[in-house]
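User: Second chain of the day. Same drill as before.
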Amino acid sequence: MADATLARLSRPSVQTDSFWVIPPLLVLAVLFFYPLSLIATQAFTNGTGPVSLTQFGAVLGSAVFRSALLHTIEISISASAGCLLLGFVIALVLSFAPFPGARVVARLIDTFIALPTFLIALAFTFIYGSAGVLNGALIGALHFETPPIDFLYSPWGVILAEVTVYTPFVLRPLLATFSLIDIAQIEVASSLGAKPWRVVREVILPAAVPALLAGGSLCLLLTVNEFGIVLFIGAKGVITLPLLVYDKAIQEFDYTAACVIALINVVLSLALYFVYRLLVGRLGGRRAGLV
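Assistant: Same format as last time:
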C-alpha cells in the first residue's frame, strides 16, 4: 500500500520534469536545428534538385576554398599558440610574482571578454594603421616617405588582434589551476637549489597542462569562427572560412556554395567543441581530485 502511494506521488514529478525539457528543445529547434536544416538542404540539393554531392566536390576542389581553409587553420593555430604563451606568462606573474594591483590587472584583462571583437580591431587600426598614431609619430619624427609599420593589414595583424581578444580565455582557467598549487612544493624545490625555470617546468607546468589544453581548445574554436576581426582589419589576401561564406552569400549571391562552406565550418566547429568539452571534463575531474 505504501509503495503504491509513493509510486503515485512520484508520477507527477516525472511528468513535470519531462515537461520542462520541451521549452528548451523548442528553442533549439527554432533557433538552431531549423536554420541548420535549411542550410543542409540547400547544400545537398541546390534548393530544388535531388540530393547530390556535386556542390561539395565543386567547393572542395576550388582553389578559393583551399586557400580559405589554409588561412583559417594557420591563423587559428597561430593565434591559439600566442594566447597560450601570453596567458601562461601573465598567469605565472599574477599567481607567483604578486605585485600591488595584481587583482586589478587580472580584472581588467577579464574585461576583454566582454568587449566586441571589432572594437579591438578598431583600436589596432587607430594605433598601428597606415594613418595611425604610431605611424604618424614615426613619419613626423624620422621623415619616412611611407608608413614604416605595415603589419596590420596582413595575417600577423589578424593574429595579434585575436591574441589580444582571446588570451583571457586561457588566463582564467590557468589562474584557477594555479590557485590550487601548494606553495610549499615551490618553496621546497627552491630550497633544494632548483632554478626558477626548473620549478616552472617540473612543478607548475604539469599542473597547468589540463588548463592549457582546455583554454587552448576554446581559443582554437573561437578563432576558427572569428569574422569581425578579419573583416574589419581587411588584411590583403586573407580570406577565412567565415569570410568566404559572407563573400559567397552577400557579394556573389552563390547561396549553395555559401551553405556548403557554412556546413563544413559547422562540422569543424562542433568537432572542436566536443574536444573542448572533453578537456574541460578532464580538467574538472583533476580539480576534484586535487580538492
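The chain has two domains: 1-52, 62-290.

User: Great, on to the next one.
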